[in-house]
Design goal:
Keywords: FAD, Flavoprotein, Monooxygenase, Oxidoreductase. The protein is α/β, with parallel strands linked by helices. The protein has 15 helices and 20 strands. The protein has 2 domains: 308 residues, FAD/NAD(P)-binding domain (3-Layer(bba) Sandwich), CATH 3.50.50; 160 residues, FAD/NAD(P)-binding domain, CATH 3.50.50.60. Helix 1 links the parallel strand 1 and strand 2. Helix 1 packs parallel to helix 11.
């Protein structure tokens, strides 16, 4: 990479968000862009998470781009290897490889207000860009708790998102820390092989059966020969989840019937009343993400598994100690403790127009305009930003909505002409977030009685979207220039009035 290469757009990350942004930019006729990826291959979280049993909890035909359908999904809920292969296929099909820069981790990016561009420092050198699209994703940086004595543990320690495939767990005594979406896939995958598995559970999850099956050859043939059948399948999956949203967002009490089904599912596999009591949540189902597994409970009922209803407190040599005093001798510790979601590390590497980092701007909680742009950070956009997460459907739906917003953002910059940038107005950001938080008050995520990773350090839900994916798509269909300040290079400020007026008229015609 040249010392001072300049591009129109720099996309950070090559997961679903980054590759989707690259495809959408191409469709808008923008080819002067690069995709900066810190790792040696594309795939994002589906590259990093390769632990045993890793799979998606959203049906395959819904967990893929609408513009890149895959008629050959092998299972209704696909595994990590199939999703990663799909992302590699997207990169190849749309000819993105020449613009993907692997091993180019972004170290820092700073807004240059005079030149109206982002100065970006990567592990391989520097470049600049008019627009930055941050698609690093919320599930990219593992979160490992600070446990006293962990540094002195003589055995093996790793996080589920950094699985050590060179370490053989067979015959080992293993401590699994956490009971989230990763843990319930790992536990049944390693339980038959380990000598002893001790599961440290701070809060039990609600678990429903995973209705997974192989997609038959005739089904795949039909989807290849008649593409509309694949679209119909996707549409049905979308519609079912769209109808379910109101129970999560407006009428949490309706979820009581689902709780009864979840308890019945547990009772089939867990006959020990004491173990069943440990595994029964005390909060409303849906407050934390509902987990899908048909093998988790049967694994917990096996003789070589012990469930400790407490979190890990400390490590003393090879002894792990729970907060309730329970002790266990182990050879390996596996952390399934999630990710930095409400405190994304990338925010510490983004310095905006006021000379402060995004992390400093968000010190009281993440806030963005329509999940995309932040006040004080012109021409910077995030994919899967604050309050864009979903509790029961596919994040690809939300990503595609944000790609629509990105496309119109670039159109508005083109209409403005010359050297121009768009900066989200603080008043617009605050107004949008007030509406979001007002809607959040009645949702199961705020009223369900749990402490989830959806909440930030202040107890505010800055992660989940309190509506349907369709509502979000309507809200991000077009950029409203009234929510933005038009920033001009000094040499062009004299003529900015006429151009801004023309752009505003165009935006009003689209809205």
């Amino acid at each position: 990479m040249a010392e001072h290469e300049h591009v129109r757009v720099a996309v950070i990350g090559s997961g679903f968000g980054g590759l989707g942004a690259a495809v959408r930019l191409r469709r808008e006729g923008i080819t002067d862009f690069v995709v900066l990826e810190r790792a040696g291959s594309v795939g994002g979280t589906w590259r990093d998470n390769s632990y045993p049993g890793c799979a998606c909890d959203v049906p395959s035909h819904l967990y893929s781009f609408s513009f890149a359908p895959n008629p050959d999904w092998p299972r209704t809920f696909s595994g990590q290897e199939h999703i990663r292969a799909y992302l590699e296929h997207v990169a190849d099909t749309f000819g993105l490889r020449p613009q993907i820069r692997l091993n180019h981790e972004v170290v820092m990016m700073r807004w240059d207000g005079d030149a109206l561009r982002w100065e970006i420092e990567t592990a391989q050198g520097r470049l600049s860009a008019d627009v930055v699209v941050s698609a690093t994703g919320p599930l990219s940086d593992p979160k490992t708790p600070d446990i006293p004595g962990l540094d002195g543990f003589p055995g093996k320690v790793f996080h589920s998102a950094r699985w050590d495939h060179d370490y053989d767990l067979r015959g080992k005594r293993v401590a699994m820390i956490g009971t989230g979406a990763s843990a319930i896939q790992i536990v049944p995958s390693i339980q038959p092989d380990v000598a002893q598995l001790t599961l440290f559970q701070r809060t039990p999850p609600w678990v429903m059966p995973r209705m997974d099956r192989a997609i038959t050859g005739p089904e795949r043939w039909l989807h290849r020969q008649l593409p509309f059948t694949g679209k119909a399948r996707r549409g049905l999956l979308f519609g079912i989840r769209e109808l379910q949203v109101t129970a999560f967002t407006k009428h949490p009490k309706q979820l009581g019937a689902i709780e009864s089904l979840a308890k019945a599912n547990m009772a089939k596999a867990i006959k020990d009343p004491q173990l069943r009591a440990k595994l029964t949540p005390s909060y409303r189902i849906g407050c934390k993400r509902i987990l899908l597994s048909s093998s988790y409970y049967p694994a917990l009922a096996q003789r070589n598994v012990e469930v400790v209803a407490s979190g890990l407190k400390e490590v003393r040599g090879s002894t792990v100690v729970a907060a309730d005093g329970t002790e266990a001798e182990v050879d390996a510790i596996v952390f399934g403790t999630g990710f930095h979601v409400t405190d994304m590390p990338i925010a510490e590497r983004v310095v905006g127009a006021d000379g402060i980092t995004l992390a400093e701007a968000w010190k009281d909680g993440m806030e963005s305009l329509r999940g995309a742009t932040a006040a004080g950070f012109p021409n910077w956009m995030t994919i899967i930003g604050p309050n864009t997460g979903l509790g029961n459907s596919s994040m690809i739906l939300m990503i595609e909505s944000q790609l629509n917003y990105l496309a119109d953002y670039m159109r508005q910059l083109r209409v403005l002409g010359g050297r121009a940038a768009l900066g989200a107005r603080a008043s617009a950001v605050h107004a949008w977030n007030r509406r979001v938080q007002d809607r959040m008050k009645r949702t199961v995520w705020n009223t369900g009685g749990c402490d989830s990773w959806y909440l930030d350090a202040n107890g505010r839900n800055t992660t989940i979207w309190p509506g349907t994916p369709s509502e979000f798509r309507r809200a991000t269909r077009a950029v409203n220039l009234a929510e933005y300040e038009v920033v001009r290079a000094r040499a062009e400020q004299e003529t900015a009035g006429d151009r801004a007026g023309t752009a505003t008229g165009a935006a009003e015609a689209v809205a």
